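Final report, closing paragraph on structural work. Over the funding period we assembled a curated collection of sequence-structure pairs, and we close with a single example.
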Amino acid sequence: MTIKPCRQKWKGTMTDRERFNNQMHYKPVDRCFNMEFGYWLENFKLWPLFVENNVTNNTEADIFFNFDEFKVIGGNVWLAPLFPQSVVSENDTSKIIMNGDGLLAEIPKDGHDTIPHFMKASVVTPDDWKRCKAERMRRDDPARKVDFKALKTAHPLTRNYPLGVSCGSMIGKIRDMLTFEGLAYAVYDYPDMVEDMVETCCTLVEDFLDQVLAHIDFDFASGWEDICFKNGPIVSVDFFKNVVTPRYKRIHRKLKAAGIDIWYMDCDGDVRPILPYFMEGGINCLFPFEVNGCAHPAVLLKEYDKDLRIMGGVDKLELGKGPKAIQAYLKTLIPLVERGGYIPFCDHRCPPNVKPEDYLYYLDLKEQMFGLAAYRA
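Its predicted structure, as stored:
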């Protein structure tokens, strides 16, 4: 079923690609780039505007709200094949599954969004990792070969939207495999194993980039870590600096050679202790920048000036408090949008406690403050 937009696209005089690139490089724009990060799964079941219009996922929601176009492509840079996914057991309210990262996890039977309760990892010791690496992290696996001709056809030079290349994860996916607690122990019990895992992740990303960078004109790079929580990183700053950052530097050299100078990292929580080492590695943009787990975006943009960009940073808790709170918060973002290098959107998936009418008010207010009319005023 074709999704019909419920709103007009923000008026503009530039293409989405031109607008994004100018905004990220502190150049003049016709208006702010308009995007959102998405919604909890429950929103698609609870919000009438989604249910009544058969909007069932975030891709459809982007079309429904007529946001600016924004795309990222990635390669097979993790387990290949994944661990076999299966239901191990279940009761009236939950089920225990084996997921693709090899974890036994307890999840709610009704499928609502929550962090799973991870019970057991398949990779714990160096012997486990050696076996997993040999079986599932082979560089020569045919599944890692990229059909760059098809990608060039799908994303031509004449496109009018920004296109990013995913640089995977150096430590976040390792956390997924070992679990939060498992990684915390492994860094001290098996440091050589963890470093080899990071090196393997880096090599697979490099192999992917070597296949695509010469053939496709990318506008930015992306990455995913989720290695922080509200009290900072779950690995030591020294470990991050000495083990992870050197791998970022290797990837950055390839990006820089291909003319890519914007690299955002999706990392929740308080990134401030490791932000200098993100930036030393070549990462110069944070996404989606959780306010309550870190700080108001103005704090870091003031500290790092134009060396840093931020995408996100609209406090989802304020969205849940109604129009007055939404207006008050968006006003604090006006100077950031005006300076450039900042694109405002909800600082993670929008939760279902936000009323749909308040969310529409938020979208309207964003357009009033940051759309074409505001820039012409």
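The two ends are 40 Å apart (CA to CA). The longest strand covers residues 103-108. We thank the funder for supporting this effort.
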